[in-house]
């Protein structure tokens, strides 16, 4: 769609246009990644780290793929193999009894990474969700962590850990919900906005400034303001600037020494880099990785569609570009975005995440070519379309880092140097409402925008820099399609931290993995998808009709789980009827348990055959009495029939489907009601899909 053709003489802005600019209501973005908010001064201090046994196999440590905020694993280790004391100092020094040269960094306000004693630790800060009727409050417990991950520097020993501050728990700061207060909404908050509205708004933006041009985009027509805000990025209750201000205010109210705030760090580092300016003067006056001696090292601009995947799109494009640069091979097709998007436990898939964590996961787990898992935002699937063991080459990320050494440590000079020397970088910024209308030029924020716009965060790829008419700019690749901006790219004012563009900057390299890929989840290879992590898999010898045998076996299984040394997992699975007789369908049982096992966990008794999977005796779907079952389609396109029963306050859900490649299957799940269906579907050998919203 062409730019708006409405023009006005300078100085003739009407009150109507002013009202349009200040009358825009805010839109809630998608939920922030994790409902936790911790400041650096709250994490600085002495910590106790509790480590589970190390293994040559990497574990998910009970987290789902992708991670789900409401389903965090219990902070529990069946065995604590060692305990370490670690001191975190501002802004980035970590010390232990044996290592005083360690490092650490916050990951926004949600997590930290600590590197000390030749080990690397990653964990989210702990949070509690308190439900009171229809209102849910999140309480951040910044002196404790969720169950997290650790590995050694050689990446051949992996384990789970948790940590808590050494001071008594009552001295820790617990921070109740940091969500922004509700703001007033205009009458048009959820009303579709017609094309004329967008044209009028674009024209007013062009009238207010002359550094960049705005236009009305067809993708915005008939969208509500709520929709547009969601399109802009991931909801962050606190902006990078507010993060720093909060730390500054909190620190000033305490007599003890605290870490400098985010804003203090920026000004301090700007002064400390004066000596660096001489070296940076040798840098070119402009740079563009789209055209280095006539060669482009970038992926094509893509459209992330309705998925909050900007962080992993930018990260994967950064890694792909750096690999092409290092190998001097611009023809390399690139790495898969879909693989880390839907398979990583460190981020929340289409609900958002961070480039730093996406880079860390690519370093811990690995990278696969684009053709192995093509981008699929509509139907999430952690499934590979290629045999990774047959790939001639395998890769992983390496040296993932924040520019400047830690979160908040970036400066313009450091960004310029790494961008030219090593390749594109991932940057995050806080787009305002008018950014959605950007068409070309050097973007800077239009003042006097309404406060109602919800703060969001958007990640893009930094690919170059330059100067036009005396104005310095960054050159960036967006992920909103080629019809947006300057063929999918945009320029932004450089050197003033416009919209926070110079605050959160991530880089990483790519190395080739030469070891043979092992299916056992070794650190040198790709984790096999669908294999449940360190879970007890007891083969039940019972027949589907023999509920008493089923219950005896399940009880035995729970007892063995209680005695096992596996990292905690909320799921225990077992398979029945291994012989697969032609007249008998195979049945899987998935038992939802709490960890650690609670004494009040009640197993349903074998009462009158209540657990008999009625209707499954005949392996033909046509023989199902459809009146007893609700039919629906799962995310594999199969027709599935379900009915439910209750036994001793336990929900029993019975499923039946045709697996296409053999006899029909019966599946049944039972456990304490937890507010929603949690169902695993299985094929003949291993889990196919995790709990999914389609199974309702």
From TrEMBL:
GO terms for molecular function: cysteine-type peptidase activity; dipeptidyl-peptidase activity. It is an enzyme of class 3 (hydrolase). GO terms for biological process: proteolysis. InterPro entries: CathepsinC_exc (IPR014882), CathepsinC_exc_dom_sf (IPR036496), Papain-like_cys_pep_sf (IPR038765), Pept_asp_AS (IPR025661), Pept_cys_AS (IPR000169), Pept_his_AS (IPR025660), Peptidase_C1A (IPR013128), Peptidase_C1A_C (IPR000668). Residues 283-509 form the Peptidase C1A papain C-terminal domain. Belongs to the peptidase C1 family. This is Dipeptidyl peptidase 1. It comes from Polarella glacialis (Dinoflagellate).
């Amino acid at each position: 769609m062409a730019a708006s053709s409405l023009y006005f003489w300078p100085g003739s802005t009407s009150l109507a246009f002013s009202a349009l600019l200040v009358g825009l209501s805010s839109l809630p973005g998608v939920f922030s990644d994790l409902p936790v908010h911790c400041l650096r001064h709250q994490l600085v201090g002495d910590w106790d780290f509790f480590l589970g046994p190390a293994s040559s196999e990497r574990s998910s440590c009970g987290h789902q793929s992708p991670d789900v905020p409401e389903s965090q694993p219990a902070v529990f280790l069946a065995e604590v193999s060692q305990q370490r004391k670690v001191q975190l100092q501002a802004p980035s020094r970590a010390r232990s009894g044996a290592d005083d040269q360690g490092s650490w960094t916050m990951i926004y306000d949600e997590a930290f990474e600590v590197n000390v004693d030749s080990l690397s630790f990653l964990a989210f800060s702990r949070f509690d969700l308190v439900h009171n009727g229809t209102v849910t409050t999140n309480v951040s417990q910044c002196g404790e962590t969720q169950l997290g991950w650790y590995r050694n520097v050689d990446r051949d020993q992996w384990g789970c850990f948790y940590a808590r501050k050494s001071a008594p728990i009552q001295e820790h700061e617990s921070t109740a919900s940091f969500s922004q207060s509700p703001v007033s909404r205009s009458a048009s908050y959820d009303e579709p906005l017609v094309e004329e509205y967008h044209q009028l708004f674009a024209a007013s933006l062009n009238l207010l400034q002359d550094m960049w041009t705005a236009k009305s985009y067809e993708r915005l027509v008939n969208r509500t303001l709520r929709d547009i805000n969601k399109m802009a990025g991931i909801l962050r209750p606190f902006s990078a600037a507010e993060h720093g201000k909060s730390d500054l205010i909190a620190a000033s109210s305490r007599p003890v020494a605290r870490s400098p705030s985010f804003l203090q760090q920026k000004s301090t580092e700007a002064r400390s880099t004066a000596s660096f300016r001489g070296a940076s003067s040798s840098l070119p006056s402009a740079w563009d990785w789209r055209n280095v001696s006539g060669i482009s090292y970038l992926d094509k601009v893509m459209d992330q569609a309705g998925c909050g995947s900007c962080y992993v799109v930018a990260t994967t494009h950064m890694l792909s570009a750096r690999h092409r640069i290092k190998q001097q091979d611009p023809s390399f097709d690139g790495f898969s975005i879909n693989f880390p998007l839907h398979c990583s436990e460190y981020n929340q898939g289409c609900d958002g995440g961070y480039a730093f964590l996406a880079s860390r996961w690519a370093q811990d787990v690995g990278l696969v070519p684009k053709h192995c898992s093509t981008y699929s935002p509509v139907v999430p699937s952690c499934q590979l379309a290629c045999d990774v063991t047959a790939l001639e080459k395998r890769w992983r990320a390496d040296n993932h880092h924040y520019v400047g050494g830690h979160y908040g440590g970036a400066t313009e000079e450091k960004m310029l140097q790494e961008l030219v020397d090593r390749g594109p970088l991932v940057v995050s910024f806080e787009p305002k409402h008018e950014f959605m209308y950007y068409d070309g030029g050097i973007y800077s924020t239009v003042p006097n925008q309404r406060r109602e716009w919800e703060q969001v965060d958007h990640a893009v790829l930094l690919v170059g820099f330059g100067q036009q008419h005396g104005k310095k700019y960054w050159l960036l690749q967006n992920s909103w399609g080629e019809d947006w901006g300057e063929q999918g790219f945009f320029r932004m004012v450089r050197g003033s931290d416009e919209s926070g563009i110079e605050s959160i900057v991530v880089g990483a390299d790519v190395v080739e993995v030469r070891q043979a890929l092992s299916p056992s989840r070794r650190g040198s290879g790709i984790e096999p998808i669908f294999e449940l992590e360190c879970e007890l898999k007891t083969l039940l010898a019972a027949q589907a009709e023999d509920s008493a045998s089923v219950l005896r076996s399940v009880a035995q299984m729970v007892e063995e789980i209680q005695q096992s040394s596996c990292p905690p997992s909320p799921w225990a699975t077992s398979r029945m009827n291994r012989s697969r007789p032609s007249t008998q369908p195979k049945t899987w049982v998935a038992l939802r348990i709490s960890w650690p096992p609670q004494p009040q966990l009640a197993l349903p008794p074998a009462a009158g055959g209540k657990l008999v999977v009625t209707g499954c005796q005949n392996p033909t779907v046509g023989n199902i009495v459809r009146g007893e079952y609700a039919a629906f389609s799962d995310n594999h396109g199969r027709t599935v029939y379900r009915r439910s029963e209750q036994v001793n306050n336990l929900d029993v859900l019975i499923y039946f489907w045709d697996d296409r490649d053999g006899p029909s299957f019966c599946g049944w799940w039972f456990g304490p009601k937890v507010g929603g269906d949690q169902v695993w579907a299985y094929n003949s050998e291993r889990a196919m899909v995790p709990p999914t919203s389609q199974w309702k």
